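User: quick one
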Amino acid sequence: MELFFNPGSIAVIGASERKLGSLVVQNLLRGYKGQIFPVNPNYKQIYGLQCFPSLEGIPHPVELVIVLVPAHLVPSVIEACARKGIKNVIIESAGFAEVGLKGIALQDRCKAIAKQSGIRIWGPNCMGLVDIHSNHFFTFMHPAVEREGLIPGRISLIVQSGMLSAIFLAELRRRGIGISKACSIGNRMDVDECDLLQYLINDPKTNVIALYLESLPRGRLFAKIAGNSEKPIVLLKGGRSEAGARAAMSHTSSLSGNSRLTDSILQQCGVILANDIYEMMDISNALTLIPNLPYTCRTAIITLSGGAGILACDALARKGLNVARLSEKTRKDMGKVFPDWMPVANPIDLFPAVGVHGRSKAFSLAVSSVLEDPNVDVLLIHYVAGLDSEFKELAELKKKADALKKVVFFWLMGVEEGTAAFLRETRKLGIAVHGEITRITDCLAAAARYRPRRPGDPSRETEMTPEFEKRSEKIEALSSKNSILDEYDSKQLLGVQQIPVVEEMILNSPSEAENVGQKWGFPVVLKGLIEGETHKTEFGLVHLGVFSRSQLEEAFLKVKTKLGDKGRILVQRQIKIDYELIAGFLRDKEFGPCVMFGLGGILAELDPDVAFAIAPLKYEEALRLIDQIRGKQLLDGFRGMMPLKKDLMADILVRLGDMGIADPHIEQIDINPLAVSKGSPVAIDANIILNDSGARKKKEM
Amino acid sequence: MELFFNPGSIAVIGASERKLGSLVVQNLLRGYKGQIFPVNPNYKQIYGLQCFPSLEGIPHPVELVIVLVPAHLVPSVIEACARKGIKNVIIESAGFAEVGLKGIALQDRCKAIAKQSGIRIWGPNCMGLVDIHSNHFFTFMHPAVEREGLIPGRISLIVQSGMLSAIFLAELRRRGIGISKACSIGNRMDVDECDLLQYLINDPKTNVIALYLESLPRGRLFAKIAGNSEKPIVLLKGGRSEAGARAAMSHTSSLSGNSRLTDSILQQCGVILANDIYEMMDISNALTLIPNLPYTCRTAIITLSGGAGILACDALARKGLNVARLSEKTRKDMGKVFPDWMPVANPIDLFPAVGVHGRSKAFSLAVSSVLEDPNVDVLLIHYVAGLDSEFKELAELKKKADALKKVVFFWLMGVEEGTAAFLRETRKLGIAVHGEITRITDCLAAAARYRPRRPGDPSRETEMTPEFEKRSEKIEALSSKNSILDEYDSKQLLGVQQIPVVEEMILNSPSEAENVGQKWGFPVVLKGLIEGETHKTEFGLVHLGVFSRSQLEEAFLKVKTKLGDKGRILVQRQIKIDYELIAGFLRDKEFGPCVMFGLGGILAELDPDVAFAIAPLKYEEALRLIDQIRGKQLLDGFRGMMPLKKDLMADILVRLGDMGIADPHIEQIDINPLAVSKGSPVAIDANIILNDSGARKKKEM
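Assistant: Done. Structure below.
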């Protein structure tokens, strides 16, 4: 990848003195220190540079080629690159997969040539790349309109949409936010977000990586790279809604994944998800400015407006962040400047103290006390430029906060000129500032919850069943029967994998009802199973609360009549259930084998509360997955119920993942409900869906 | 109230040539056309105006008095006002209820004097009022710093926090948003948000009313006024979180209500709730610019960036707004400029069309087609100033949109100078613009869902029980027993009110078990009731699924042993439940008698989904209350269940409210669960909490 960013020489195919070809050459002339070889048979010179009729005509080695010629000419350019032994090509031309079948064919041809010759291709249909620190603009962005005024900084961008790359740079400049590199990746014929993410994670000039993507075709790899990143990754994902995904499908040739699965997996890998362009930028910027915010995020607020203090508390609470409890020392210290009638509390409303003791005294006392307070991680100062007195001690404040390892964030409001001057100063000093309290709490939440700073989970190994062979045989035998295993067969397989299942047996005739009573007593549940039918209740095939032998016999006959000569009849012990969970396994297009965990029951169907993780899971990852659902409070001993035995639950999730991965026949596993009874999870109903034979054969090949 | 805003003459008590007294006089001199009487014994003249030693010394009638003297002098000023027959006083001085007991005493004295003399008091501890259109600044805001540059507009503000009033004006100016009136109401000794809300609803210069409040002491009245308002009301409520509410209690002497109840009731009254200062301002501004957005809000998006189109769809979807389906005519028309490979869809990505046909042709065709499309309510244009070509046809666009009654909203991005010029133009034309798509969808959602534009609910009368007398007697009899009626007594009362309750009877001895079986068959539920004890399950007093006479006798004896000589034993028919709801009645401090409706069950306890409305309810209001819960999909026939009979449910809610209102003994009613069985709601468990006798006696007095 390095040669894309720092090549010793560049050839521009389609260079000219007008249109895009002109802009690329102008951009190179304004900062690129290597050799530039414009290629265009119609020019002898371009902006004073010798112009070559073809790539072959260049009597020097070329390390990077930028292609701007019309799409139908590009395959021959790639062939020429191959002949010249060039390994890095950026195709900025459009007219490929995004324009339909013809373009797809062109793109496939280029891809084939490149693959054969070991050429890495960036694009097509992209704006290339920008490296502000090196002054490398390998792009047709306008040198005057779009390039000027960009600020060198620590955020690098990866952007799938061409137009948005230019917009992002313009907006970052307007917001005074610095940039390191910007990569417009277009159709991702070869080089994609995974390649660039890995490159930028290792780039010493990048502290935070911000992305705009509409799909994650290599989601599994992306998640793995992100999960190992020690740099924060902020993702704005387009096409998360159904309407957005429709638009995404017609806009590019990409498919958007199930956003619930995607969001869940990426969050577990520490990726921060933004909903909006500015939110993405503001959070990225805050992460470069406050990289060391502790997980606790105990925030003290200093303000001259009680109302602003209240709004700050509300915004912190909405994000689940902590309003700091001031130490006794701080309260005592501040008591010296507070009027008698006013208790010292957080938020610290300094208005009365300033009235009595003057701004300077009250303010410096408050700032020192709070920064030194061991109960405080963040000092949030509400400041109104132009209405409050001038804020002179910014440099000193920053120095002190840094020395004490505290984070300072300004909530800035006020009159135009005042805020502009304040922003110039804070940007110089690297102090975090924003005008909107809800955006400040978005930033704090992102910085505090960035995964590498989370406390670790307990780690151990989940014991695996030694009966792998036996299970495989079973699946082989069962899968010949039907592509959806019935409840009984499904639970038999789960049982082999040491996943707890409810006690049950197949009942062949009413006369066996006696055994049932002797074995378990009553009540029991009777179910009619039909192969491939997962909606038993809707068909009246389920009898709950069967309380005697005679009721059981009666139920048997009723269900038998409904079944006719199909299916079979199952009897289960009826257990007392505290609440219902669901767990499962599936193969996702983008993320591969995944495990799901969530709440069950009807309300959860209404507003699903589920989380996903990539399989195979480690035990500690399974614990984290359990902890990711919104309603996790339910699991911790809610309303006097026994807490969920999370070790057992984690084992189930690990085993589900292993079971699915070990056997490519398994397409999907649903345990629903996974009932919790006195803290122990047990599978009450389950389905295993197998691949159809055709698909299975293919995979075996 | 009119004399507060437009008095013929004003006396300023505490006028001077320095500090606040100077600012008030300067502000009056800069625009107020009536007579100004500075009052201060230490001056002969102030800024060239004759200064009077006292109010009595003014030989002219005075219509409004502005008070700036220290708090301890204020009662005598009010007395002087009373003697001079003045009816309108604004106390801007601080040092009253906000500073503790002494201040409260002072405030109470002023209140008493004012009440006796029929004086209306505005304040104390406030910044007074501003009327930009009349140039009336009855405030100590700084004439140069804070006053200059404010833009006359259609939004009026009511602000509880003094400092925030000034901040709001500064921020509105900075965002280029126009203002009509701004009212800083401080401690609300007398004039409060209800008085001003009513005044502003009738004010022809106000189109939208924006408020910042930390509590709503006259919530019931506020809700009534808001509910009848034909102008949108946008409320930023401080202290919605627990942390914020604690801060609110120490900041002012006000108590914050339960935010779930407050939010729910206000939303039903059509009040739009904002979470942030800018959100409040942006939504208010949008409501002045796009007052006539239809409820359907079918939005078409025109953009040159496919990515931006996708993000717009995502943001619309997150707010539940509609992405318009373009008519066939529009698709056909746009097909003329779209390349063959690209289907015409919404969002309309014009990039390829602009490439082939030029911006002007593609754009004007798109705009005309979409504005004329009967399937479109809103045209959202994504525009990048400085990167896209200049947008010249703004005036024409606005004219056309107005003529066709369509809303136009710009999503503006781009380089600084370009956006500034664009904003100047759009502000002049009154076109809605914002840079953040999520804020745009906040604005569209607020404008579209503003209550007066919602389709109406069916209306009819809920039949009332004729047995009102009987019920009152019953309550009288029961309330002497205990302040919490037990389940049986509670449901007896509900039954009298024609609220459906489960069939049940008191079981006095095991021998009665036989009758139970004969009457209902099995299974039944047996419960031990203890007076005042609402946690039966936790005490093992509930036996579900009692399936035979012998089991019933056994359960009776077990529970009897637990009860000892307390309580009694209840037997109920066990019915098949589809899902559980809850319903109730309570008396709220701010909103008075209210009815609650929501989802029941354990997940709902985890993350409550309840809504409140002020009682008494009309039938159609009850229907609206049912419709307010997040999980309302459950009620409409979810997963093959019968839909809830909403007419029966609405009747129950109406009767609950009437029952609570009719009898002041009733403090609270809880029906939990209110089970739904085949679409019919029926009370399974209930509690009625009565006032303690003392409170009851007081209310009767």
